[in-house]
Design brief:
Number of strands: 7
Strand content: 15-25%
Number of helices: 4
Distance between the termini: 61 Å
Length: 157
C-alpha cells in the first residue's frame, strides 16, 4: 500500500511515541554550576520549542517537549549541595586528587549525574569511584575495579 494513503493520525502517533527520557532514581544532588546548567537547558529548550511551534514542526515539538519535561523534573528534584569549606573528608562537590599504584595521578570533581563529564574531570556522585571515596581522608586508599588509589589531596572544587 502506498504511504500516500496512510492516515495522518498514524504519523501523529509515531511522533508522539518518542518515549520519555529516563529519570534516575538517585537523589538529584547538584552543584551551583549544575543548577545553572539545568536552568540554561530549560531556557534553550523553551526557545527551540517556540521556533518549532512557529514552523509547525511536529516532530521537533515532540522531541523538545519530551526534553523540557525531563529538565523540568530534574529542576524540581534538584538538591543544591555545597561542600563544607576546609572539610577533610571527601564530600559531594569536592575535588579529589588520587594517585594510582602505578604513580599516575588523576583529579576528579564529584558532581551531579547530569553535569558529570569524565572527559573533563568530573564524575557522578553515584559512580563507583565517588561512592568508594565518600567519607575518606587524605592518605586513605580506595579500591575500584581492582585498582588501588590513594587520596593525595582534597579541594573545595
Amino acid at each position: 500500500m502506498s504511504r500516500a494513503f496512510t492516515r495522518e493520525e498514524d504519523s501523529e502517533n509515531a511522533i508522539a511515541g518518542v518515549g520519555e527520557r529516563p529519570i534516575s532514581t538517585h537523589r538529584n544532588l547538584v552543584t551551583q554550576r549544575g543548577l545553572a546548567q539545568i536552568e540554561d537547558n530549560l531556557g534553550d529548550l523553551r526557545d527551540i520549542l517556540a521556533k518549532a511551534e512557529r514552523k509547525g514542526d511536529r516532530e521537533r515539538i515532540a522531541v523538545v517537549s519530551r526534553d523540557l519535561r525531563y529538565w523540568t523534573a530534574r529542576r524540581e528534584s534538584a538538591e543544591l549541595s555545597v561542600p563544607e569549606p576546609g572539610s577533610d573528608l571527601v564530600r559531594f562537590g569536592m575535588g579529589v586528587t588520587l594517585e594510582g599504584d602505578d604513580g599516575r595521578k588523576v583529579h576528579w570533581k564529584i558532581v551531579g549525574e547530569d553535569e558529570a563529564d569524565p572527559t573533563k574531570g568530573s564524575i557522578s556522585h553515584v559512580s563507583p569511584m565517588a561512592v568508594a571515596l565518600f567519607g575518606k581522608k587524605v592518605g586513605e586508599v580506595v579500591t575500584v575495579n581492582g585498582k588501588e588509589w590513594e587520596i593525595v589531596k582534597l579541594s573545595d572544587g
